[in-house]
Amino acid sequence: MKAVIQRVAQCSVVVDDHTVGEIRNGFLILLGVENGDTSKEAEKLSAKIAGLRIFTDENDKMNLSLTDIDGDVLVVSNFTLCANCAKGRRPNFIGAARPETAEPLYEYFCECMRNNGIKKVEKGIFGADMKVSLLNDGPVTIIIDTKDLA
């Protein structure tokens, strides 16, 4: 699993001119599910993100986590994170999990975020053409691949 985490002051996702998810202070998480990913990756990644200390404390140091600030998350499925650009100019997406595997893992990841103490977990619509708007705070953007986690 791969995640791009953006610390946001606000963000929203729109599908067919309707806002389907919206948060304030927290993370926009773009989530890519790869072939071979299981619930284990979703659990590990959600715990890592919930505890990631990238919010500033009273001394202006990145020392607070999402749970420390009672922050929200907006999770958007994004198979293009699994792109392989090694050859040629057109990315291939062979490494992305098929929708019948990816969607349940995406949903499970969102459930895991709640289980890790995140009270407000908003979502996009899996497989939809989504318009994502955000006000990046910092900017702070972190990329995590579960293959790199211990």
How is the secondary structure organized here?
Blueprint: E1 2-15, E2 18-32, H1 39-51, E3 55-56, E4 62-64, E5 72-77, H2 99-115, E6 121-123, E7 131-145
Parallel strand pairs: 2-5, 5-6
Antiparallel strand pairs: 1-2, 1-7, 3-4
Question: Could you walk me through the main structural features you see in this protein, from its secondary elements to its overall organization?
Answer:
- It is a single chain.
- The protein is of the alpha/beta class and 150 residues long.
- Helices cover 20% and strands 39% of the residues.
- The chain has 2 helices and 7 strands, in the order ββαβββαββ.
- The strands form 2 sheets. Strands 6-5-2-1-7 form a 5-stranded mixed beta sheet. It has a two-stranded antiparallel ribbon with strand order 3-4.
- The longest helix is centred in the last third of the chain and has 17 residues.
- The mean pLDDT is 97.
Compose a concise summary of this entry.
This protein has 150 residues and is of the alpha/beta class.
Number of helices: 2
Total strands = 7
Main sheet attributes: strand count, strand direction, barrel closure: 5 strands, mixed
Inertia-based shape: globular
Low-confidence regions: none
Q: What integer is the average pLDDT? A: 97
Q: What is the strand content? A: 35-45%
